[in-house]
Specification:
Length: 241
């Protein structure tokens, strides 16, 4: 059952891996803390993690927010194999416990005004033999922000994600579009136009393509935190709960 102790917040899910969930999480966390709020950021499960890998999602978030007293970043499972969580846990001879994630989120959340929970891959990625990311979103009881690409294939991936969330009764805050690569302008425009036409959720963005984001991640996050779209999402988070 949903954890009723969670404060206002959202679950940040992607239509796929590498669509920009972490940079959106960081930018949104920065925008919310700039209002004076205390923000808890949780990445329950990360795969492809090793202690000496400085650019893992959790490591990047922790390093970026280290100077901010009103933001904290937590993680429950860090698994070395860069595969789906279920298989990564098996490879590490571990078992992901969804109840443990829910309890960790509940204990962590009591200290913060807002909770941002970032998923792993898409919503049907398996965490255990019986639970996937969508189940976790439902059990947490948080509305969902979908991060999607503007490139070819995004219409299908985004509509399937919407369908899956609707079937589970999960409230959808909106769809945030992100330019993740160099895509022909006509293709980008077509994707944005059709998603706005065919989606029953707000379509936000798109963010501009940042070719140097990996090497200049901190400055890229700060730029996005001041983007009108992130400011709008922050307002929606504040008003949605």
């Amino acid at each position: 059952m949903p954890d009723q102790s969670l404060p206002p917040g959202i679950f940040i899910a992607g239509t796929d891996t590498n669509v920009g969930k972490t940079v959106v999480t960081a930018a949104l966390g920065l925008a919310l803390q700039q209002t004076g709020a205390r923000v808890g950021i949780m990445k329950p499960v990360e795969t492809g993690f090793t202690p000496d890998k400085p650019d893992s999602d959790v490591q990047r978030l922790r390093k970026f927010f280290a100077p901010y007293r009103n933001v904290d970043v937590r993680n429950v499972y860090s698994l070395p194999q860069p595969v789906a969580p279920l298989e990564a846990a098996r490879s590490a001879q571990q078992a992901i416990d969804v109840d443990a994630i829910l309890n960790a989120c509940g204990i962590f959340a009591v200290h913060y005004h807002y909770m941002l929970v970032e998923g792993a891959g898409g919503i049907l990625v398996p965490l255990t033999e019986t639970h996937d990311v969508r189940d976790l979103i439902r059990l947490l009881g948080l509305p969902c922000l979908i991060v999607a690409r503007t490139g070819l294939g995004s219409i299908n991936h985004t509509r399937l994600t919407l369908m899956g969330l609707r079937e589970a009764g999960i409230p959808i805050l909106g769809i945030l579009l992100n330019h993740t690569g160099i895509t022909p302008k006509e293709q980008q425009a077509s994707t944005v136009k059709l998603l706005r036409e065919l989606s029953d959720a707000p379509v936000l963005g798109p963010f501009p393509f940042q070719p140097h984001l990996n090497s200049q991640w901190d400055s890229g996050v700060r730029t996005l935190a001041n983007h009108s779209t992130i400011r709008e999402v922050a307002r929606m988070v504040q008003e949605s709960n």
